[in-house]
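Just scan my protein:

. . .
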Amino acid sequence: KLHSDLDKGVGTVKYTLSGDGAGTVFTIDETTGDIHAIRSLDREEKPFYTLRAQAVDVDTKKPLEPESEFIIKVQDINDNEPKFLDGPYVASVPEMSPVGAYVLQVKATDADDPTYGNSARVVYSILQGQPYFSIDPKTGVIRTALPNMDREVKEQYQVLIQAKDMGGQLGGLAGTTTVNITLTDVNDNPPRFPKSIFHLKVPETSHVGSAIGRIRAVDPDFGKNAEIEYNIVPGDGGNLFDITTDEYTQEGVIKLKKPLDFETKKAYTFKVEASNLHLDHRFHSVGPFKDTATVKINVLDMDEPPVFSKPMYTMEVYEDTPVGTIIGAVTAQDLDAGSSSVRYFMDWKNDVDSYFTIDATEGTIATNELLDRESTAQYNFSIIASKVSNPLLTSKVNVIINVLDVNEFPPEISVPYETSVCENAKPGQVIQTITAADKDLSPAGQRFSFRLSIEASNKPNFTVHDYRNNTAGIETRRNGYSRRQQELYFLPIVIEDSSYPVQSSTNTLTIRVCRCDSDGTIQSCNVEAIFLPVGLSTGALIAILLCIVILLVIVVLYVALRRQKKKDTLMTSKEDIRDNVIHYDDEGGGEEDTQAFDIGALRNPKVIEDNKIRRDIKPDTLRFTRHRPPAEDNTDIRDFINQRLQENDVDPSAPPYDSLATYAYEGNGSVAESLSSIDSVTTEADQDYDYLSDWGPRFKILADMFGEESYNPDKVT
């Protein structure tokens, strides 16, 4: 109930409600302020509600007091029973467990409020499953209540568990669940044979290794605890039979280890022991976990094929034995009580079997063709024996016939048929060890002997030393051999065997003389090597050839350099390619050097021979007057150039150029123009050299030469 102090009870105040559940779960009387629940409440669904209430003026709709908040808590009652959320349960416990052995713990939950009263206090109890199991009322732990519960008696148990709230008091709510408990197996039972004697009947024709019967011991345990091992107790028949365990059925399978024969023994008796493989030490006090039974086996008589006296026959015969010669016999007999007659015949497989025949009644084997050991040394075929009373019953045996050798082939030398000896060999040196081979089948102890032939015994070159172990050594008898005198030696060797009749052969061994070093290592056995100079090795020959090649290379290089030098005299400079009478290759000293070039040598060739002035000596300073030289000087230079030009024109070996332009023209662009006398006027007196003084200090010496002194033609050289 809500009430405001401003409410005088005259209807001027109106109450409003808002918040959780307002209008849906709770409602308020606007005049009195009473709050009512309009539907049932569930604490487990919502334990409390938060609401807000306010009082307002009916006329002005204005709040008379601030809004207030309050909480409505739902009071719990016991309306939910305990529930097992994980049920139903499945558990297991080993059989023969003691009392109080832990099985399982169950748990029930109650949705009621555990903080209010006993609505959520749960107590556990067993409704079904006693007296085998018990449960703790508070924790819900299930334990065994009886000792030695046997799985073989009862394996499955269904226990009904109840959980009740209100502490188990009257009026409390309860819930139940089912627990299925299984007793697991332990090896608490030994195997037992259901009977003490087992009888088996086995035909005498049973094959070795075949199963002839089964026996079984019963073990009530399960799984690996029921696995049984069977063993035959040593005694009668234990060496003829064997027993194994079938892993699927746990039966003992009896197998035959050796053949049975009714005529030899008709019955066998032995004991079989069955025991567990996996024992539990807790139950050793119960007794031995094994059992024993007797097995009696009766052998049944069967109509059997004939039996040969031997599992295999081996015979020998000499080669070239006459046809029809008996070399042996086979024997088979019927061991049955009726003792039927036996017939023999050959098992034809190929043409080799036609070399022999067999007597159908007696079983004797004879040759049918001539035998050759060198062609076939051994024959292998089968003989079949059958009963006359029942031809379908047959048996087979292998016959091996070895063909013995008759000494008909002489021994021969084994490879090699050729050997070598060093030129520097010493007397008594072994140069080769030889052996012999014989096409005949050599019997044990046969020996070969070696010796020189009679004609070779008188030659003092080589000898044969018989080691008496079927080998012999070739020894030298001379001190050194010469290839120049004889390159090959042929040594006849006689070899004999020890068989009868004695066979011998003469074999020729070729011995080649070779050049060796001091250690005896062969260096050369070729015929061409004989003609090489004595003492000249291969390295020396290579050195000589190398020297010759080097000399040839030097000669070729020398000739090439000479040709290149001759060419360079004709082409000294890339810019000055011409044939000059006098070649000047020195560099001038500039404008101050007035004696770098002597033009007088070109004016009169005769003066060159007479004067012979050296160019490496500085000439005296020449001073010229303004007088011009006679016209004859210019004529001499022109004649000289024309003469040289004509010589080069008719000379086929001369270069295809002349030097006329070289001396006649000194180039363009000079302020002083050409100073050469070639293009000068006829007389030098017409020249005026006063202008040289106007060219500056660099031309001072030249102006003094031509200006101060008068021209004197006698001073010109």
